[in-house]
Design a protein that fits this description.
This protein is of the alpha/beta class and 274 residues long. The chain is 54% helix and 14% strand. It is built from twelve helices and eight strands. Strands 3-2-1-4-5-6-7-8 form an eight-stranded mixed sheet, with helices on both faces. Helix 1 links the parallel strand 1 and strand 2. It is elongated, with a radius of gyration of 21 Å. The two termini are 31 Å apart.
Length: 274
């Protein structure tokens, strides 16, 4: 792959920075092999100072500097971006897009028939190298490009290979939006702790470490969350009492309805952008 270890990033926001940091930490590329573009000079200068990468306010500079480009702009900015870069697109370009809700068909419309296109759905924990990224390449994508995309996003967490692009809406509702479900539960736990007499600091510390530890336990191979829940739930005990309320209040139904709503909205946004 020509210039396979020279990466351009269109969009120097939080996810763009997370990728820069992860790529450098993993040593997949070196700082002088990355060029990133953005609209705010102050932001670009901060990236240069922190990571030693090249930056520019001109998206065209990225296009002419490398064949491997990550699109990390917000979905609503995709049309503007494509109008700026389309004149520079060639058949040698590989675009890896993390713009939420922009499917391959829309990317093809924006960028034309020439380039190779890969779609990725990462999530917020990627900013601390603990993300999960779903990668859709399409059946005709050469293996070396698929493998390279996985290498890039394994620099900020784990990856899964998606064979059916329609599942990206489901993935958006589950893992893309998923961190917010956990944050909301943490928020509720902290507030209840304070209401019951704990200091805000103590309630927050107890909640954060509980969630962190539970996530570590639940992330072990060959360990199912259901089994862990059953292990910690003694009949007639405190956890048993709490789980009974979960059941009576429809906790599992609430989670399912929330994910369904996120999936539905993902589909609506995708259709609106066609």
């Amino acid at each position: 792959m020509k210039d396979s270890y020279i990466i351009g990033i269109l969009g120097a926001g939080n996810m763009g920075e997370a990728l820069i940091k992860g790529l450098l930490r993993s040593q997949l590329v070196r700082s002088y092999e990355i060029i990133a573009s953005g609209k705010r000079r102050s932001r670009l200068h901060a990236l240069e100072k922190s990571y030693g990468v090249h930056t520019t306010i001109k998206n065209s500079d990225v296009m002419t500097s490398t064949n491997t480009i990550i699109i990390a702009v917000k979905p609503q900015n995709m049309e503007e971006l494509s109008s700026q870069i389309k004149p520079y697109v060639t058949e040698n370009h590989l675009f890896i897009s993390i713009a939420a809700g922009i499917d391959i068909k829309k990317l093809r419309h924006c960028l034309g028939p020439k380039p190779k296109l890969i779609r990725v759905m990462p999530n917020l924990p990627s900013v601390v190298d603990q993300g999960i990224s779903a990668i859709f390449c399409g059946a005709r994508m050469p293996e070396r490009y698929r493998r390279f995309a996985h290498q890039v996003f394994q620099a900020v967490g784990k990856t899964v290979d998606v064979k059916d692009e329609h599942l990206m809406d489901v993935i958006t509702g589950l893992s893309g939006t998923g961190p917010a479900y956990i944050f909301a539960m943490m928020e509720a736990m902290i507030n209840v702790g304070v209401k019951m007499g704990l200091s805000p600091k103590m309630s927050e510390e107890l909640t954060k470490q509980t969630v962190f530890g539970a996530a570590m336990l639940g992330s072990q191979d060959n360990v199912k969350p259901t089994k862990l829940r059953e292990q910690v739930t003694s009949k007639k005990g405190t956890t048993w009492a709490a789980m009974n309320v979960f059941k009576k209040k429809g906790f599992w139904d609430l989670i399912e309805s929330s994910i369904n709503a996120a999936v539905k909205r993902s589909k609506e946004l995708r259709e609106a952008r066609k």
